[in-house]
Amino acid sequence: MEKQSNGYVGTHIQNGIATIEFYHPAGNSLPADLLTTLTSEILINGKDPAIGLIVIRSAGDRAFCAGASFEELMAVNTPQNGMKFFSGFAGVINAIRTCGKLVVARIQGKAVGGGVGIAAAADICFATKHASVRLSELAVGIGPFVIGPAVSRKIGLSAYSYMSLTPDEWQSPQWAMERGLYHAVLDDITELDNHLNTFTQNLLTYNPQALLEMKNIFWEGTENWDTLLLERAEISGNLVLSDFTRNAIDQFKKK
After folding, report:
1. Can you list the domains of the chain with their CATH numbers?
2. pLDDT tens for the chain, residues 1 to 255
3. Which pairs from 251-254 meet CB under 8 Å and 24+ separation?
4. Residue 166's closest CA among 125, 112, 121?
């Protein structure tokens, strides 16, 4: 997939695996148009009977995902625009939840904010030793509200609370694995891809209906997320217009 100046989301299908890759020059951040496309690609491939499972990855060998677009965040000027902006990751998380296929995330580098949300929403997540994680939202006057249910569900309320309240602190891949965000941490990308390939090939040998039923069980108790995550987006959309948050964003821009 050719890298473009404004980023892309592309899908490669091989041997029953749909690999959805995203890229953006700003640390693989995800502006609204890429989030919409990513959501659509997850749902489309989830409904395809020829697809056995979905892999989500980003391009490059450094950052997995820097979260939402900071430029778009700065441009929010109404509660409606704010809610729409923060709903982007809600769409991706709910697509992973409801697509009907197991989703495996490949985390080759650092994940921030919404990038942590994608890792947490995936059914299985493999990473390298360079894939530290951070929830930075509080540093600019908001909070990880939309991705919170996915992160808390995966690592527990205590670890999610600590991450949320230490927005300047990176947590190591080992920390993330010990708390269940990552299921394996490999030394480098080559080992990561070998591990991912072995795991996904084995997964394809199992009964697809059994895998679907297991996914449904994995996600029990999240049936209200279609509305819950939008309610959380509304909280963020209102907060981003507060004087405190606008000042925090202005200070962040000057760094």
Report:
1. 8-203 (3.90.226.10)
2. 545 568 999 999 999 999 999 999 999 999 999 999 999 999 999 999 999 999 999 999 989 999 999 889 888 989 899 999 999 999 999 999 999 999 999 999 999 999 999 999 999 999 999 999 999 999 999 999 999 999 999 999 999 999 999 999 999 999 999 999 999 999 999 999 999 999 999 999 999 999 999 999 999 999 999 999 999 999 999 999 998 988 887 777 666
3. 252/139, 252/140, 253/74
4. 112
* Rounded CA separation 34/26 (Å): 13
